């Protein structure tokens, strides 16, 4: 009897452990889904003639003009209904907006313009969800990039990052560290594909021996992906700027 009770207790413990493991896996999956939720659009108008969608804190507007409604389609949402035109417009005040927001906007419109004629990609309502998804994906990635830049502007000193400048789609990072007797400027060329591709770069030495070869060795160890820019800065600090060279 004692052995049976002991076996039962063991089974209960195993089941409890499995349940806890499943709960952790469920939590992990939920967090992953939230991380990759690319619904970055809001509908601001849906009338008989057109629909208007906003992205990125109302700084980008997408206007879609519909063709004539199909007979029997009371709400004008028949997937085969034609789309006459599809137009993106920037509503960002570039004179008032911070440089990071202007950069994000440029990269998003770089993607939009690279796709050619959007009306050909989306001739009917059937294709609209895919268009919204594709744009949302790029908006989400670029929005995270903007947050990374804002983070580095605020906390860059922790990584020996003296100054950041944004010029068109290039980000210039000025590093300086007395312990490593080094000062250099790293220029990264960004695109709408961020953070899924490696970033072209140039290095300008000012003090010390850290140049293109040393930076290239570090960047080759930084995998593309989430928080790519922050990880680049962190690894340069960790590998090149903390100890005397």
Report low-confidence residues grouped into runs of 5 or more: 32-36
Q: Which shape, going by the Cα principal axes?
A: flat
Q: Could you spell the SSE succession in H and E letters?
A: HEEEEHHHEEEEHH
**Into which percentage range does the β-strand content fall?**
15-25%
Organism: Pelecanoides urinatrix (Common diving petrel)
InterPro entries: Blinkin (IPR037388), Knl1_RWD_C (IPR040850)
GO cellular component, one term: nucleus
Protein name: KNL1 protein
Summary tags:
single chain, 245 residues, alpha+beta, Ubiquitin Conjugating Enzyme, 2 domains, 4-stranded antiparallel β-sheet, 23% strand, KNL1 protein, Blinkin, Knl1_RWD_C, coiled coil
In short:
The protein contains 6 helices and 8 strands; from the N terminus they run αββββαααββββαα.
Describe what you observe in this structure.
The chain has 245 residues and is α+β, with helices and mostly antiparallel strands. It is built from six helices and eight strands. It has helices at 2-35, 99-114, 118-121, 128-155, 212-219, 228-241; strands at residues 41-46, 50-55, 60-66, 83-90, 161-167, 170-177, 182-189, 201-207. Strands 1-2-3-4 form a four-stranded antiparallel beta sheet. The protein is flat. Mean pLDDT is 87; it is low at 32-36. One of its GO terms (cellular component) is nucleus. Residues 3-146 form the Knl1 C-terminal RWD domain. This is KNL1 protein. Keywords: Coiled coil.
